[in-house]
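Entry 14. Structure prediction run on the chain below.
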Amino acid sequence: MRWAGFLALVLVLLTLGHFIIPAHTISIWMDREFTDWISPIANRLHGQSRLYDTGLHSPMPPLPFVLLRLLHPNGAIWLDESLLHFVFQAATLLLLYHVFSKLIGVALAFASTMAAIPVFLCLPKSILYDPMAQFLVVASAATCAQLLRINLAAGKNFPNRSHYLLAALLGTLLALTLLTKQNTGIGATMGVCGALVFIPAQTSFVRRLFFVSSLLLFVFLATCVILLALNQFISFSGLIHDVVLTGSEPKGGPFHLLHNFVHYGRQIAVTTLKIGAFLMVISWVSNRQMPLRKRFSLFETIFLSWENAADPVTKRDRQLIITALIIPVATCLCLYFLTRIQANPPPSDWLIWLVRAGLDLGLVIILYLGSVVLFQRRSPAAHDLTRHPLTPFAMVFLPAALFHCLSVGGFRWTYDNNPLIVLAFVFVLRPLFTLQGAKNSLDQKWMPVAKLALVGVALVGAWLLLPVQMASVLRCTESWPEVKHLAGARLRPEAGGMRELIQSVRSLANPTNNETVLLLPNDPNVEAWFDRQRPNLSSAIIFTDQYWDRYVSQDFAELEAHPPAVIVIGPRNLWRPFARQWHINQGAERLIDLVNNRLIPASYQLQAAHPISFADTTEFMDVYVRRKP
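Output returned:
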């Protein structure tokens, strides 16, 4: 049954991928989100340029860029990154199912993964480093869980040679995560170290600390080896400066990140209080005489109990698996026909709220499980929660999720394909798999039906989050054969304004004379559409959270010395408010103001203000052409 469930998930993902992978739903950054910021930069590595040298400064780690460069030696296009993005999304889900099915049973793992699929695929952003980092987080957590299991089995013989070999593998996975997205890698490393130190084992605390120190040494060595292997494509000293020492500056600086971290804590505390109060009221109403300690025991029994996953799959499990498969497939078919009738179905706010409330409940359960480990509290229930098979995953996934989106103001753990989503669904759906009926025959007869119905409701609720995304996907019907970077892509008719902009820019900049085009703020995806050289500026991307203020004077001097033939600035009304989410009058904003106030009045004239469809409104891209001397 495990492999049957795996195959069913693969088929569902392949079906959805057939529609999603070639659908380019975004016309320019933040139209619906971001897309394809890796392949255009990777293509610049085909020359003599190296990441983190002049011209390619970037606060992002190198692995996604180098991966696309190696996979596509003749140059990557948008479809290549979109495919790889979806592959890592699918691989994360499949790996979670494979690991969890061995620990908590096939039926629950299958239903939880199936419920998480639409939450993952609702993400309109498709930049490779996000799903790539999350896949590595899952691989690291699974390896950490295996290491803890053999730690427990080894007893006082821990650690030995086999444990150090597994630690070397874990160190390599964490190094890969750090070199994919540093914030996520830091969070995952902290989680792994916390799990290895605080989850009880028969070995002494000092021995565990020594082993964790060895693991961190493996992380450092693996990072050095990987960077040496990538020497052809990156500058090591530049990476240390751009990513390690100053990587947080474009994101607002260390204090901005610390402020966000504190805000996340407040946000989680409020969520915990709301969910905790709700659960306490329910338990009090159901049994007013129950003491507080027994309420915690009941909470653990309902949400955190588990069965031996090695037990044979029962008839009930098969029914649940079939239900978990049929409902999403039926929902997909309904969505397909509904979106043909209604192009943009409105989102169901109450449904979104309900699913988020369920996921918040899962988050609170994960926090509770982690607190049991960190504070070494004896569990009121009969079993010891520190031995729960999912404890290592809770310990790793939560800090990885916290650090993953640290540059934004809200804790968006349900947004960026965090594996925490699947884990939350596991704990929320768990009671539906353990409901027990009364001893009379009528209740015993109807209880399996109730279980199937409740699982079905949960899955339908999750899958009904997908219509808006699928509506945009199915609206992608047009191809732009004149744009090489969009070969094989399908775009929305609303993106026609950008197509006219491309034609205009190409007609104004002559590639035979090496005339350059400057797009501010940068969108590497759109720059690739222009198919014209960009000015020789310091950084890979001139964008609010990717560009240092220290390079503004140098880059403006370069623009004055070698003025581009065409300057495109836009979206006119959004770029400045968006930039100020991180900085005010710094970096990209300051450079654009210098271009607007000094360079353009001196040497340029407004050629056109191209209207584009942007975030369901009309925006403008201002095109300036250099005046002839």
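The two ends are 75 Å apart (CA to CA).
Filed with the rest of this week's runs.
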